[in-house]
Write a sequence for this structure.
């Protein structure tokens, strides 16, 4: 087997795409490291697929550049960019066998003879379908078809691998299996990979870094942990994971720490973002698992009206409402005994990292 190829750098510089007067991609800049998996994550219409299609060469940008290992590729047509693509619908030829589907991209690039057969065998083995060479796509499961599409993309030995919602058509369990499989293959081959998805769990589990997109722009480009724990905008904060938002006002500031008086009736000490002043109205964002129920009142505890408690797997999700009417979700490990009805206060868990945002009045 050939040695593992080194990953390539991919730089997107101030990329802009217009459809008529509408901006689909608005000045996006991303620097992607060799061998990195980057997820483009966002709601429908945010520009992530358009950005992927520009990198692939299917869409021409109005401004900006795409570079691979420092070399501009904007002038190259799609079939000369050496980029592998796996689509959501797999795009397999139904009248061709598995081997013929894998060979299609190779023959289109002028590869002939024994080299074609060698690469078919190699990459079908890589995706663990070596015994399926003569089957037609209709004789394969959804996951097997996806692996054939992946083998076809890998067989051309691309400099960059693009994955366009590749797991969307699979059921939940198979989707997780394929996410693990693609991550394993990407690590084995050292390929720089871009994944387009609207599924935050998929992005969090597969990607090394995530570009969260909204209205054609990247709102945050960071590691999954940083995006979850330290969202930079309210959009990122609400789009990634589940969160609780509570109103408050800055009562004091000292050495970068804000004392916030919650409308719900407690006082919290939180890290203050730049530009926040005393008296400023703020939103406090805290994840459900960063809240704790308590039966003990205190200055950093606020009273709640408990609601439903729902067992979900190994967790218990509590609904509650604060004195000012805010709705809360609180998550804790599921216990064998019912929740204590005396726990009518809520506090921050010991490891909680709430995020403070300015609030317009």
């Amino acid at each position: 087997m050939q040695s593992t190829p080194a990953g390539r750098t991919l730089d997107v510089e101030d990329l802009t795409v217009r459809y008529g007067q509408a901006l689909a991609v608005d000045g996006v800049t991303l620097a992607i490291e060799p061998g990195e998996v980057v997820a483009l994550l966002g709601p429908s219409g945010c520009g992530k697929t358009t950005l992927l299609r520009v990198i692939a060469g299917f869409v021409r940008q109005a401004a900006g550049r795409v570079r691979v290992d420092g070399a501009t590729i904007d002038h190259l047509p799609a079939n000369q960019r050496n980029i592998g693509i796996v689509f959501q619908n797999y795009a397999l030829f139904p009248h061709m066998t598995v081997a013929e589907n894998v060979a299609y991209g190779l023959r289109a690039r002028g590869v002939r003879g024994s080299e074609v057969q060698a690469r078919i065998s190699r990459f079908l083995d890589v995706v663990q379908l070596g015994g399926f060479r003569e089957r037609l796509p209709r004789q394969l499961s959804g996951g097997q078809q996806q692996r054939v599409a992946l083998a076809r993309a890998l067989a051309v030995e691309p400099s960059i691998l693009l994955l366009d919602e590749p797991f969307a058509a699979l059921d939940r369990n198979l989707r997780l299996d394929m996410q693990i499989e693609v991550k394993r293959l990407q690590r084995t081959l050292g390929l720089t990979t871009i994944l387009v998805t609207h599924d935050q769990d998929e992005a969090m589990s597969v990607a090394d870094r995530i570009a969260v997109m909204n209205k054609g722009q990247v709102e945050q480009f960071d590691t999954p942990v940083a995006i979850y724990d330290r969202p930079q905008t309210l959009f990122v904060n609400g789009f990634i994971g589940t969160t609780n938002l509570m109103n408050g006002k800055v009562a004091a500031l000292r050495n970068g720490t804000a004392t916030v008086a919650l409308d719900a009736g407690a006082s919290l000490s939180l890290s203050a973002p730049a530009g926040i002043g005393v008296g400023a109205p703020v939103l406090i964002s805290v994840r459900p698992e960063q809240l704790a129920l308590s039966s003990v009142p205190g200055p950093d505890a606020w009273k709640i009206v408990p609601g439903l408690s729902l067992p979900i797997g190994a967790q218990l999700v509590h609904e509650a409402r604060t004195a000012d009417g805010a709705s809360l979700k609180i998550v804790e490990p599921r216990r064998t005994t019912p929740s204590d009805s005396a726990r009518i206060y809520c506090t921050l868990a010991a490891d909680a990292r709430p995020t403070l945002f300015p609030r317009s009045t």
Remarks:
- The chain has eight helices and 20 strands.
